[in-house]
Design the sequence.
């Protein structure tokens, strides 16, 4: 599914574990295992296809938050973030992210 955040289009795709691997080191690491990853170079959100539905939703939300932060909080130093800023980010991002997640899972039964 394709979606836009701040006028930039991304695509969500569900993948096998081997599709996360980009480097020789990752390929050789037997513990390398990801639930999701956002590729800002190709504007793709990769989600591990075999996750249980609840974890898949949380993983998608997590990746969408990375995109939200990159799109809207570009000048913020996220290492020194305060509770007030965190609450603001959550309040401002919630509807945007939830709308995408609902759309993505609308034909899922569980
Ligand atoms: Zn992350």
Sequence:
């Amino acid at each position: 599914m394709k979606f836009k955040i701040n006028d930039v289009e991304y695509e969500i795709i569900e993948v096998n574990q081997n599709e996360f691997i980009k480097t020789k080191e990752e390929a050789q690491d037997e513990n390398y295992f990801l639930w999701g990853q956002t590729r800002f170079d190709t504007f793709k959100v990769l989600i591990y296809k075999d996750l249980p539905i609840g974890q898949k939703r949380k993983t998608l939300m997590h990746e969408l938050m990375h995109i939200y932060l990159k799109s809207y909080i570009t000048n913020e130093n996220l290492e020194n973030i305060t509770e007030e800023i965190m609450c603001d980010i959550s309040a401002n991002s919630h509807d945007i992210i939830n709308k995408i997640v609902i759309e993505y899972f609308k034909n899922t039964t569980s």
